[in-house]
Amino acid sequence: MAAPALIQVHFVLLPNSLILDWAGPAEALRIANQCLLAQGQPERFALQFVGPDGSTATSVGAQLTGLQPLPTALTARPATPHWVVLVGLPGETIAVDNAPARAVLHWLRGLRLVTHQLELVTVCAGTLLAAHAGLLKGRRVTTHHQHLDELRAVEPQCEVVANRVFVEDAPVYSSAGVTTGIDLVLQRIADTCGEPIAAQVAQTMVVALRRGPHDPELSPFLSYRNHLHPALHRVQDAVSLDPRAGWTVPRMADMAHTSPRHLTRLFMEYAQIAPLQYLRRIRLAVAQTALQSGHNVNHAAELAGFSSDTQLRRAWHQLGLPGAPSQARQR
Predict the structure, then answer these.
(1) Cβ proximity of 185 and 121 under 8 Å
(2) Alpha-carbon distance 166 to 191, whole Å?
C-alpha cells in the first residue's frame, strides 16, 4: 500500500500575527509527526511559514525571519494536498487597508478550494481574512467572539456560528479565539492520522480535548483522556491501537505495572470509567466505523474484537445506541 500523501501546511503570517494562533497548531502537527514516526509510519505534515515579507514582527514583539514567499502556484491536486492556515491579528477590527494584507488577499483570491486537496483552516480572526478574500460565501464558519458581527458584515452570505470551539464545513475549517486553533488542529489530526494519534498529541501537549456545547460527542478514542497519569495513558494507547487483542484487566494492569485492583482505581479516578467499560466503548466505536464502511455485522464484530455478533448487539443496546447494528450499516 502506498504511503499517504504528505500534506503541505502553509501558515500565512502577516505583521503582528497572534503568535499563539499559529505556534500551538504548528507544535501539534510537529508532535503528530513524531508520534507517527515512533510507530513506524511516515510523517504526514510538512510545515511552511509564508508571508508577503521575508521577515515580520509577531504580536509579542519577537521578530520572525526566513519566511517563504506566498506560493505562486497552489493548485488542488490529490497527490499533493495543501492546508492554508490563516491566523488572527490584534485589534478590535481586522485592518486590510495595508500593503501586506492586500498582498495576502490577492493571493487568497486565486485559491480554488477542494476537499482533501486544497483546504482552508482559520484560527481566531483569520476567518476575517478569508471573508475579505471571498472564500466563505455559502459556508458555515466561526471566529473569535469579538469579531462575529464584523464577520457577518464582511460576508453576509456565510452562516456565522457563535459559541462553538470550531466548525467544520469542508473544505473550510474555522475555529474561535486563540487557543481553539489547537482544538481544531487536534480534530484535523484525528481525521487524518487517526484518533489514537490525536490523543497522544493532546497528552504530549497537556491540553484537554474539548468541544463546544453543540458539537458532536467526543469519540471514545478521545474521551476519558483529560488526565495526566502516564501509566493510564499507556494502557489507553495500547487498547486504542489494538482493540482486537485479548484484553483483560490483569493484562492491562501488567502494562501499567500495577495490580488489577489498583488499575481499576486509576481508571475510575482519572478516566471516570472502568477498564472493561472503556475497552467495550473502544470496540463499539471500531464496530460502528466498520458498519458505516459497509461491513456486515459479523465482520464488524470480528474487526472490533467482539467474540461474536451477539456480543456486539448486546454492547450496542447496553450503551443505548439507537436502532440495531444492522441498521447502522452503510448500503
Answers:
(1) yes
(2) 14
Q: Which residue type does 146 have?
A: Q
> Alpha helices of the chain — where are they, by DSSP H?
19-38, 99-108, 126-132, 148-154, 180-193, 195-205, 230-241, 249-256, 260-266, 275-292, 297-304, 309-318, 325-328
How many Å apart are CA 254 and CA 176, to the nearest integer?
42
DSSP 160: E
Place of cell 492520522: 193
Mean pLDDT by 10 residues, the chain (331 residues): 86 94 95 95 96 91 92 79 95 92 95 94 95 96 92 96 88 89 92 87 78 60 80 91 93 95 94 94 89 87 93 90 79 47
Helix (H, G, I), strand (E, B) or coil at 187: helix
Residue 171: asked if its preceding bond is cis (omega within 30°), the reply is yes
**Cβ neighbours for 188, distance < 8 A, ≥ 6 positions apart:** 83, 121, 173
Q: Grid coordinates representing 45?
A: 505534515
Cell numbers that stand for 258 in this block = 500495577
Cα separation of 133 and 128, whole Å? 9
**How far is Cα 219 from Cα 281, in angstroms, rounded to an integer?**
9
Predicted confidence (pLDDT) per residue in 235-276, tens digit = 998 998 899 999 999 999 999 999 999 999 999 999 999 999
How does pLDDT run across 192-214, given as a tens digit for each residue?
998 888 888 988 887 766 655 45
Distance separating alpha carbons of residues 201 and 224, to the nearest angstrom: 15
In angstroms, the CA 203 to CA 229 distance is 10
Cα angle, residue 111 at apex, residues 105 and 117 outer, rounded to 5°? 140
